[in-house]
Amino acid sequence: MTTKNGSQQRLLILGAILVAVIAAFAGWSVMSKPAAQAQGAKRTKVVFWNEMTGPAQQQLNTFVKDFNQSQSKYEVVSEFEGNYNEAVQKIINTHGTDASPAVFQSMDISTSQIHHTGYTTPVQKFIDEDHYNVNQIAAGARAFYANKGTQLSMPFNTSQPVLYYNATLLKKYKITPPPVNPSYSDITRVATQLTDRSHKKVQGMTVEIYGWLFEQFMANAGVSLANQEDGHAGTPTAVNFTNAATVKTMKWIQDNLKKGDFVNYGAGANAQNNETASFLSGRLGMFMQSSASIGQLTTGNQDQLGITYYPHPDGQKSNGVAIGGASLWISNDKPSNVQRGAWEFIKYLMTAKSQAQWQVATGYLALNKDSQKEAVLQNLYKKLPATKVPGEQLRAATPNATNSGIFLQGLIQERNLTQTAMEQIYNGSDIQKSLATAQKSMNAYIQGNNRANGY
Amino acid sequence: MQQEITPASKPSLKPKTLNQANAKGFNLHVNDKWYALAFLGPSVLILGVFVFYPMLRTLYLSLFLTNNVGRPTVFIGLKNYVNLLTSSAYQASLQATAVYVIGVVAFTLILGLLLAQMAVRKLAGIQWFRTIFSATMGVSVSVAAIFWLFIFSPSIGLFDQIGTLLHLPLVQWLTTPGPAMIAVIISTVWMNLGFTFLILFGALQMVPQPLYEAAAIEGASPSYQFFHVTLPMISPTLFFTSTVTLIGAFKSFGLIDLMTAGGPNNATNLMVYQVYRDAFLNGNYGLASAESVILAVIIALFTLLQFKFLEKRVTY
C-alpha cells in the first residue's frame, strides 16, 4: 500500500514538474514579447535578415548602426540567418508570422523562386513613388534582379567572377601575363609555361567544380542555359547543357587536366579554401573565383596579385558574365510604415558613400556610379590597381538575356547537377554523356516544378 | 466480481470491490479513467504533436508535388516513389548508404570489441588507456570533422605526409569517390568507438571470472575461451550496440555535411543527406518526404531483421 502510494506520489510530482516546465516556457514567451516591443516603441522596428559573415558582416552592422543614428523614425534590427541556401527556406517558412523579416537579403539564384512566392513587394513600387534615380545603380547588376521591366529587388553585395594570377610568379619564370580579357588559349599558354618552367613545382591553373563558374562559361560564350531566353521572356521548360560551346569548354578543361597543366581541387568550401591556400603560398599560378575574394588575396600576400576578366572561348568576343552575390527584398506581410522603413534603409545602403565603403571593406563592387569619385575608393585603386578590374568588367558588358542571370526556379538543383557532371568530366568521363545525364534530370525537375506551381 | 456490478448499481456504493484495498475515501475504479488521462495526456499530446502528426504529414506530402512555398498542390500518387526508385542517382545513393552502414557497423563493433578486450586486462596504467579509448565520446561532430579534414587535407594532411615519407602515391582523399567513402567511414568509426568501447568494456567486466577458470582447467585455449565463453556472455550487449550503431549509421549527417557535403560525384551522398538536400536546399518537400518514408521503412526493416535473426543467437 505504501509503495503504491509512493509511486502515485512520485508520478504526481513528475506531472507537477512537467506542468511547471511547460508553464515556465509559456510564461517566458509571453514575457519576452513586451520587452522586445518596448524597445522599438517610439521607432518603427524594421527586421533585416542577412547572410553575411566575416568583414562583410562587420561592415553591414556598421551600416545598420549608422542608419539608426542618422534618423529617428526607424530602428533596423539586423539578424544573421546562416548560409544563403538555408535562409531561402527560412524566409519562405516564416512568411506571415511575427518572426518574418521586413527586409531580407537573398542570393542571386533564388531570385525567380522568391519572386514567384508572391511574398514580396517589388522595389519598383518604391522607386516609382520616390522618383528614385535608378540609373545611378550599375545596369548589369539591376538587370539580374529585374523581370520584364520591373525591378524586383535591389542588388546589394555584388561580385564578378574573375581570374586571379600570381604576377610575381609569372615574372620569376619570365612568362608574359595573360591579357586583361583573355581567351581560353591565353590561359592554356600561361598554365603550360608555369608548369613546365617551374618543373611542376607550380600548378598552372584550376577551375573549381562550381555550378556558378559553369553558368558563367555559358554566359560569356553568349549561350542560354535555359530556354525562353534564360527565362527572361517566359517560364523556362527545359535547359540546354549539351550545346557546342559548353562541350568545348569542358573539353578544354578536361584536356588540360589530363596533360597536368590544370589541377582539380574538387568542389565546395574545402576546394575554395585549399585553392586559396595554394595560391597564397605560391604553389598555384591561376584560379577563378568571385571578385569578393580580393580582400583575402591581398592582405598579407607578399606576391603581386594579377586580375583578368573571365576567360572567353577562342574566336569570339566575350559576351560578359553575370553578377553573383545577393539582393535586398521587401516583404509584403508588413504594414506600409515598416515597408517604408525597409526602403529607406535600402536607399541608405545604396548611396555613393556607403557603396564605396562597402567595396573597400569587402571586395564586393560599389554599384553606385558616383562611388568611383569617393576618396576611399580612389585610395584603394591607387594602392592596388588590380582591384579596378572587376568593376571594369561589370561596366564593359552590355546587359542582354544571356549575361543577366537565369530566371529559373531550382537553380540550386541545377548547380548540384552541373557540379556532378563537372566532377565526372574532371575524372575523365565522356563529356556529352555526363552533360546529357544532368540535363535530363534537370528537365524532369523543371517539369515537376512547373506542374506543381501551375505554370 | 466484475459481473456483479449491474449498470443500475452505483459502483461507489458497492462495499466490496477489487479496488477496496486501494480506495481510501474514493473509488479508484471510477477515477482511474481520469488518472489514465492525466498521466498519459502529456505524453500523448507531445508524441502526437511531435511524432505522429509529422509522420502522417510526411506520408501525405510524399504523395504530392509541392510548389515553391512548400504546399502540396498536385496529387501524383506513388509517382515520387517510382521516380526515386528508378532513378540511377537515387540507386547510387542507396548503394552508398549500404556500403557506409555495413562498413561503419562492422568496423565499429570489431574495433570496439578489440579495444575492450585489451582494456579489460589488469595491467599497470590501464586506467589511462581506458580513458583514452572512451575519449571520443566527448568530441562533438564539428570538432571531429575539422580534425579529420586536417588529416585528409591534400596539401597539409597527415596521411599524405606519411605517404610521402614512405614514397606512396598521393591520395586525394576527399576529392576522389572511393577514398572519400573510406575517409568518412574511418571518421565515423572513430566517432562511434568511444561509446561502443565503453558499453562492451562494461559487458566484459560482467562476465563471471569462474567461467574462465573452469575453461582454463578444461584446457581451453584463449581463442576458444573468447568464442565460447566471452562472446555468448556479452551477446546481449553486442546485439544492443549493433542495433544502435546501425540506426546511427543510417542517420549520419553531421560528418558528411562538414567533410564532403555528399560529394565527390555524389559518392558520399547518403540517403539522409539526400533528404536534407531536397527539403532544405531544393525546397522539394514532396520528394524529400518520399525519401524519408523509404529511409524509415528500411531502418524499420533492418531493425526487425536484426531482432528476428540476431536475437535468437543472443544468450541472456
Automatic annotation (TrEMBL), chain B:
Pfam families: BPD_transp_1. Residues 94-306 form the ABC transmembrane type-1 domain. CDD domains: TM_PBP2. InterPro entries: ABC_transporter_permease, MetI-like, MetI-like_sf. Keywords: Cell membrane, Membrane, Transmembrane, Transmembrane helix, Transport. It is found in: Cell membrane. PANTHER family: ABC TRANSPORTER PERMEASE PROTEIN (PTHR30193), INNER MEMBRANE ABC TRANSPORTER PERMEASE PROTEIN YCJO (PTHR30193:SF37). Belongs to the binding-protein-dependent transport system permease family. This is Carbohydrate ABC transporter permease. The lineage of its organism: Bacteria, Bacillati, Bacillota, Bacilli, Lactobacillales.
